[in-house]
TrEMBL record:
It comes from the Bacteria. Its main location: membrane. GO terms for biological process: lipopolysaccharide biosynthetic process; protein O-linked glycosylation. It comes from Polynucleobacter hirudinilacicola. The chain crosses the membrane at residues 89-108, 117-135, 167-196, 216-236, 274-299, 311-328, 334-350, 362-380, 392-413, 420-440. This is Glycosyl transferase.
Amino acid sequence: MRGSFSYRSAFLILLLGVFTYLYGLDSRFAPKNGDEYPYMHIVRMTADAGNWLPLQSEMDGIKNTKPPLIFWQGIASSHWVSEWSLLNLRWPSVLYTGLTAFFLFLAVRRFSGKTQTGLLAALVWLSFFATYRYGRPFLADPPEVFWISLPFMALLYWGKSAFESKFFFPVLAGVCFGLALFAKSFAYIAPATFALGLYYWRWRQWSIPKTLTYDLYKILIAGVLALAVFALWFAFDPNPEAVWKEFVLGENAGKFAARNSNYLLDLLRGGDSIWLLLITTLANAGLFTFVLISTLWQCWRGRRFLNLEEVLLLLLILAFLIVFTLPSQRSGRYLLPVMPAFAALIALHWERLPLWGFRIALLLQGIILALLLWIGSNLQFSSFMGTSGTWIYSYCHWILMAASLFIVLIGLIKSHYAKTLALAGCFLTYCTLTSSLAPLEGKLGRYSVETMTQVQGKDVWIPCDFRAKDEEYRLLLPGAKLHGYLAKDAANIAKLISSYPIVAVHAPFGSQPELCDSCQIVGQRMEMRARHSDEEITQMLQGQIGKHLFVNEYLVVTPAIAPDLSNVKDVCR
């Protein structure tokens, strides 16, 4: 029941939050989703074609995977791919995330009457791991969350004038919803308009006749206008039949088909059950998951005394939860637009929340920091790399680690500071995660300028473990013509050097690749492995982290004749 949130704490944590979201924004190892590289591929191919539409792609079945707004955003921010970098692609996502936090602050400050509560709501939302993971990379989630949230935050901000608006607000809501659909999917019109209907229903004191009489047409205006904005894709795309087949039927309607046994059984059990949807939705809060659980429990216990705004926030969450139980493919990611509502509820109940949820958050932060410290120490002070180079952290990294652990320990010891330091600890944990991989962003993890120059315009074969993996290698070898082979074959050096004229191969630390006499190594870097055997995991837990977590990647020129590309499938596609 302790823990006030002062202006000084809010200002310091705000600065920390801004730094966290900007630090390592261009990192290849930033927490993200696997969709980022396919999206980059579509942007690059569409820009190379010289037209905004139709969307272009070399990947089978992945072309019209999302509406064009996100790809147009990438084309614009990279200046038609002339300034191709993760930073240029990602900064609009951070801008969207920042704007969502800002308008959440304005809305909560307005109806709560407290600036600290508004700041707290924005910071809590930014501290959620799902916000950090999906709110920075080049994905469709940041614009979707912003445009869907904006009308509901406007209702909370303007109150009666927005609810009673006969034309302006419904049009505003329709445009906002339409831009959300144009960024992610037309399917979001269902939960958005459903939630809007519940808002109006509560405003009319739960009177269905009054809601139908005074507000139904407003919901229809918003819904029809939103779908009209989305329909612009069909109007402007030269091949609307492909959009209908690939996006409407394949990407959306296909999510209602039974994935395992049958629809009802999938609803109640398995990886797509409603129970897992509930768990993954709560887990979007990351380190604050148990704080969120305690907040919802407090809302339930005090349900008779909830004010109007709290009820509206819960109705928004309920609407999305109900709608997204209907598709057979269920994921907590679909409920990202309601995470600002969760953050607002936490902020409103902050002073009354019990400490156990925050102590669990601090304990989790302490475990993660201790693990990162152990891994980092093992990497820097062990000799696993041999003659391959040196894994060196700057003094700033160790200062950050020490300061983060100190702050978390203070939060665990001093109850009065537990809540505030748990919030700060979320951002510090994300910063230390980025800092722990910083050596790979330097010379260790990149090819030299000489190597890049040597393979300019040449065909190079690289390992692929997911679609469009070559887009990552385009950042490492700009200008090369990249082709993919199965990543599981990366250590089969004999086969690779006999099949491809220029190929990237993997070798464990401490051993040199066995090459032919006429083969030549033109480049070398360090790469982090993605999959490990049970034996390797056991050895890593025993301290042999570097030996199994990383490999040396060598770029080798061989005498092999290039294969006929017309007969060889690119694994990256």
